[in-house]
Write a structure and sequence with these properties.
Order of helices and strands: HHHHHH
Structural class: mainly alpha
Number of domains: 1
Number of helices: 6
Distance between the termini: 37 Å
Largest sheet: none
Helix content: over 70%
Radius of gyration: 16 Å
Strand content: under 5%
């Protein structure tokens, strides 16, 4: 139940971001919007896991509702995969490479930053 409720919230937030960013952020490069969502989601997943050690909140609630439910459905590996393949099919090899490279590098970096935010600011 927690995953389902969190998933509906995360999917709705993702859709709202997609609709709003399609109009004004990068309308010609929608893959950049996916990159932004995945980086933000990666950071918040790391940050949330870091908070688990500092709070008395139920770990099941945080894990199933927030991490798997909300953030799992907010970020989107399937869209990343589709956009990467579409760039390759459209022979935009350099853009595809940078998109895939930046997605991997930045998502891992921001997950690390989220996990270590309390150490970095103290």
């Amino acid at each position: 139940m927690l995953v389902a409720i969190g998933g509906s919230i995360g999917a709705t937030l993702r859709y709202i971001f997609y609709i709003s960013s399609k109009s004004f952020l990068f309308p010609n490069f929608l893959f950049i919007n996916t990159l932004i969502v995945n980086i933000a989601g990666s950071f918040f997943i790391g940050y949330t896991i870091m908070l688990l050690g500092n709070k008395n909140l139920s770990q099941d609630f945080i894990k199933y509702f927030f991490i798997i439910g909300i953030l799992g459905s907010f970020t989107t590996f399937s869209t990343f995969s589709l956009e990467s393949v579409e760039l390759i099919i459209n022979r935009k090899f350099l853009i595809a490479f940078f998109y895939m490279f930046l997605s991997l590098l930045l998502c891992l970096l921001f997950t690390f930053l989220g996990l270590n935010l309390n150490k970095l600011i103290s």
